[in-house]
Design a protein that fits this description.
The protein is an alpha/beta fold. Helices cover about 25% and strands about 30% of the residues.
């Protein structure tokens, strides 16, 4: 049973909800800002509860009118904190990182610097949408934050590059040639040669060639059928880079982050570096060009092959799971890890603890909670520095670089 209570919001949680406390209960309320005084309908037992915003009695000075109509009208879940001014978003992300490291990582840190994005809007070069067949044709859109089973048609996404949005409109115009299915997912990414489209779902696609012909602006077309591997169906690219492999959605901030990681690695004067979850190997190639022997590890075989082509011997790229490959590679002076949102596999942290890097682990994380969990699994290391990069303005997500060095006192090597 729910009840309506008055709340004062004092923080933003990792998922973007506002956090308040009421009679010993921690309440999470979406679409609120620190400093808001609100009424909310609250339901929950124990120490935590979810709240639904009813009225704003006194708005926070950090609160702004969100410019995206979908954010207000359809309650779009793609962004979580668009109702907050950009400086306050950066402060909220500082606190999210600090709180995760204190609660989960059991490490005390100062609030890290969060490097702002050069653009608060139109920064995304990739947009993944849910696709549903309706009586009038296909729609492509996102989910309301409070109704993840529903999809609303997307007219525009102001955090996404206009070229990507335009490509999506052309794809929908050719939707008569899509597979015979009730639901699909699609992803458009802007690369050097233009937009690449990955279609996910379906079992048969007889009109794939007609679809590719009907969308001449696409540089490449990939298909991931249900329960099958990705296939390249059409290719107009000149460079033929592995455009369907993972890449950061904010390339400007990604370049700043990569330069910072490169400089940090170089500050340890390593001879050998392991670059785990290396993607297409941009960092690996830069380090190899600086005379370092690099072992890159990447699960995606296309990305691993591309990286291998960029690395001069004795550097090399190995395709496989990091937890399987890492125990077999030679010891490194510095290990760089850049895992997905789920963080490091427990076998990876166990391997790093058993055979610690001589000088440093540089952990690039897109989730402060899994970063903190993994740091807790590395008791032989101490945090040297933490710096964050706002790769995802208007959302609660943040990219963090944590530099870990061996704890000499813990290992008995301190004098």
């Amino acid at each position: 049973m729910s009840r309506t209570v008055s709340l004062a919001i004092d923080a933003i949680a990792a998922g973007g909800d506002g956090v308040a406390r009421s009679e010993g209960l921690v309440v999470f309320v979406p679409r609120t800002a620190p400093g808001d005084v609100i009424t909310a309908s609250v339901a929950g037992k124990g120490h935590f509860a979810r709240g639904s915003l009813r009225t704003i009695l006194r708005p926070s000075p950090d609160r702004i009118d969100p410019p995206c109509a979908h954010y207000v009208r359809e309650r779009c879940g793609g962004c979580q904190i668009q109702h907050m001014g950009y400086p306050s978003q950066l402060i909220a992300k500082q606190r999210i990182i600090t709180d995760a490291m204190t609660r989960i990582g059991k490490r005390e840190i100062s609030a890290p610097e969060v490097v702002a994005s050069a653009s608060e809007w139109r920064y995304r070069t990739k947009l993944t949408l849910a696709m549903r067949r309706r009586p009038g044709g296909w729609i492509a859109g996102l989910h309301p934050y409070d109704d993840p089973g529903r999809v609303f048609p997307l007219a525009d996404c102001p955090i996404t590059d206009r070229r990507v949005v335009s490509a999506w409109r052309e794809i929908l115009a050719a939707s008569e040639f899509l597979p015979d299915a009730s639901s699909l997912r699609g992803s458009v990414r802007w690369a050097d040669d233009g937009p690449t489209f990955v279609l996910i779902g379906g079992t048969r696609w007889k009109d794939q060639a007609k679809f590719f012909d009907a969308v001449p602006t696409l540089s490449a077309l990939y298909w991931e059928p249900a329960e099958s591997r990705r296939q390249l169906l059409g290719d107009r690219r000149v460079l033929a880079t592995p455009a369907a492999s993972f890449a950061q959605v904010n390339p400007v901030v990604a370049d700043v982050l990569r330069e910072y990681v490169f400089d940090t690695v170089m500050s340890f004067a390593p001879e050998r570096v392991t670059d785990a979850y290396s993607g297409v190997g941009e960092l690996s190639a830069a380090l190899a060009s600086a005379g370092i022997t690099v072992t890159a590890i990447e699960l995606d075989p296309d990305a691993a092959r591309w990286a291998e082509q960029q690395l001069p011997p004795p550097s090399r790229s190995i395709a496989g799971r990091v937890e399987d490959v890492l125990p077999r590679v030679p010891p490194a002076d510095v290990v760089v890890v850049n895992p997905p949102r789920s963080g490091l596999h427990a076998d990876v942290t166990e391997c790093l603890e058993a055979a610690p890097a001589t000088r440093a682990i540089i952990y690039v994380s897109c989730d402060p909670a899994t970063l903190a969990r993994d740091v807790a699994r590395l008791p032989s290391y101490t945090i040297q520095t933490i710096r964050a990069f706002d790769m995802f303005p208007q959302t609660a997500h943040v990219e963090t670089v944590c530099v870990l060095t061996p704890d000499l006192a813990a290992s008995g090597e301190a004098q």
